[in-house]
Design a protein that fits this description.
Number of strands: 4
Number of helices: 1
Strand order of the largest sheet: 1-2-3-4
Low-confidence stretches: none
Radius of gyration: 13 Å
Shape: elongated
Mean pLDDT: 95
Oligomer: single chain
Order of helices and strands: EEEEH
Structural class: alpha+beta
Distance between the termini: 35 Å
Strand content: 35-45%
Length: 80
């Protein structure tokens, strides 16, 4: 299974710029991984294992799951 394209978003949280990067680690653990960067360093990591994704073997389903997961992480950051 090959990785689907990831998502990247820059945000301003509490006056600080952060970058959210969500990737499909199809080759490394079968997990969607979202990392939050501040000043070039990872400050938070979120993971969604493939076994939590319906029909994960279908690229379009995995792509949609990645987009939803990316948005979930952004909403979680704003809620903190």
């Amino acid at each position: 299974m090959k990785s689907v394209p990831g998502e990247n978003t820059d945000l301003i949280l509490k006056g600080e710029k952060v970058h959210v990067q969500t990737e499909d680690w199809a080759d490394n653990g079968y997990t969607l991984v979202s990392r939050v960067f501040k000043h070039g360093s990872v400050i938070k990591t979120f993971k969604l294992p493939y076994d939590k994704i319906n029909q994960v073997e279908i690229d379009e389903h995995r792509q949609k799951a990645l987009q939803r997961f990316h948005q979930f992480v952004i909403e979680k950051l704003y809620a903190e």
